[in-house]
Amino acid sequence: MSDEIAVTLQPETTRSPAFISVYSNHSRMAMSPWDITVTFAVTQDLAIGKVTLEDQVALRLSPQHFKALCVSFAKTLKAWESRFGEVKIPPETGQIADAMAAVILGKGKGPTTRKKRH
């Protein structure tokens, strides 16, 4: 029998005087060998053929912290959806995300808008 006792530490949280709360309805990502940057923005103008985004903040993370955050996001979303219902994402959002991922991975030119032919 071991005399070891498992201890779970609960960190104390304090708030910096420089703390800010930011709303975002758009984000994009960039990466380097050393970090991943997530830039959060707000849609300011939606005109025909034009979208204006205002960057609010950029968050630079180590790849390890980014992955841990992704796991935490997935768990939080699963809990939210089990309590409130599935979050629906418009199909074009997935297409834009795929195009942005292709740019990050160097496999594409980014999201584009195509005019409908009549």
* Tally of helical segments: 2
Give the total of beta strands: 3
Specify the biggest β-sheet: 3 strands, antiparallel
Query: Gyration radius, to the nearest Å?
Result: 20 Å
Distance between the termini: 78 Å
Strand order of the largest sheet: 1-2-3
Strand content: 25-35%
Classify the helix fraction into a percent range: 25-40%
Report the average pLDDT across residues: 82
General form: extended
Secondary-structure content class: alpha+beta
Order of helices and strands: EEEHH
Instruction: List low-pLDDT spans.
Output: 110-118
Short recap of the structure:
The protein has 118 residues and is an alpha+beta fold. 31% of the residues lie in helices and 25% in strands.
What do these coordinates show?
The model is unreliable at 110-118 (pLDDT under 50). The protein is extended and about 70 Å long. It has helices spanning 63-84, 91-104; strands spanning 26-31, 36-47, 50-61. The termini are far apart. The relative contact order is 0.10. By secondary structure, it is an alpha+beta fold.
Name the descriptors.
three-stranded antiparallel beta sheet, 25% strand, 118 residues, disordered C terminus, alpha+beta, extended
